[in-house]
Amino acid sequence: MEAAFSLLETTGLAVGEIARACGFGTPETMNRAFRRRLNTTPGNHRDRFGPA
């Protein structure tokens, strides 16, 4: 999860690429994990904390 946070916040990689690189397998799995832990989505997290 921490690796996904970091990549979302510091890179322009696609969410699917980040999901696979961080061991989630699919973007849908990462999306579910973000919703359970943060009540948000990876895309929303990037919009809020990602690179300008």
From TrEMBL:
Domain of life: Bacteria
One Pfam family matching this protein: HTH_18
InterPro entries tied to this protein: Homeodomain-like_sf, HTH_AraC
Listed GO MF terms: DNA-binding transcription factor activity; sequence-specific DNA binding
Name of the protein in its database record: Helix-turn-helix domain-containing protein
Family annotation (PROSITE patterns): HTH_ARAC_FAMILY_2 (PS01124)
Keywords, ordered alphabetically: Transcription, Transcription regulation
SUPFAM superfamilies: Homeodomain-like
HTH araC/xylS-type domain segment(s): 1-48
